Amino acid sequence: MAIQFKTLESTEIPELLEVFNSAFSDYALPMRMEEAIFVRKLFIEGVSLGFSAGAFDGDKLVGFILHGLDEFNGEKRVFNAATGVVPSHRGLRLAEQMYNYILPVLKAQGYRHHQLEVLNGNIKAERAYEKVGFRKSRDLFGYEGTVAPQIISGVEIKEVKYLDWIKVQSFWDVQPAWQNHTPTVQRTMKDQKIITAYVDGNLAGYLVYDTLNGRSKQFAVKKEYRRQGIGTALLANVTQALGKVNFVNYDDNDKGAKAFFDALGLKPNYHLYEMTLIYP
């Protein structure tokens, strides 16, 4: 079996999607995507097929690494949006070999900082990434639940079309995961809804959620306005609009938010590890 490695820029979306669905058909969190949703994922996460890796058995794609590219604070970064190998070709260390192929390609374009996410309990994947040089950097959790309607005196909750993205970074205690970071959110602003909380005309907190899948992407309350019911009011607004709150990939280092979610009755529904690699 002669496996060849090359980028995916010449691979058609239907073929890539077929292999993607095959690779994730028996995943711990089963995943099957329709083409429109798959194409949206590639766009939102900044995936460049020209810098993504494929493993080919003859002319047949049997494995892939989808890479999103972006720049944060002047540093070029790479995000592994998905790694998959079809069941018939597992056990051949294809993920490791795809990385050995693509890392120098990315380095030549100035991309040395790599990150990915692996589901807690997926020991095989975790070990494969460690062999490449990745190490765990933080824990990410999903949370979901409902928050009862709240009316907080002196707090105005309103939807806005524009947000000062630089200003609200000062509200953060942790950096959002790749799927929730500002460049990712901004790529599909037409599908995002921004809910804000104002006190005496001042922005005190905000929440951004995706109207197509209901996932909350960013949520923060300015430090001096915390413990005044503002976060609760924002989450109650989302519950009223969507039926529930659904946070994805929230950094477990934010202990204040974790305690807040627990107090509201939001429950963790999955656990990921973020892993990083600085390629020499």
From TrEMBL:
Keywords: Transferase. SUPFAM superfamilies: Acyl-CoA N-acyltransferases (Nat). Residues 3-164, 155-280 form the N-acetyltransferase domain. The keyword Transmembrane helix does not apply. Gene3D superfamilies: 3.40.630.30. One of its GO terms (molecular function) is acyltransferase activity, transferring groups other than amino-acyl groups. InterPro entries: Acyl_CoA_acyltransferase (IPR016181), GNAT_dom (IPR000182), MshD_Acetyltransferase (IPR050276). It holds the Pfam family Acetyltransf_1. The keyword Metal-binding does not apply. This is Acetyltransferase. The lineage of its organism: Bacteria, Pseudomonadati, Bacteroidota, Flavobacteriia, Flavobacteriales.
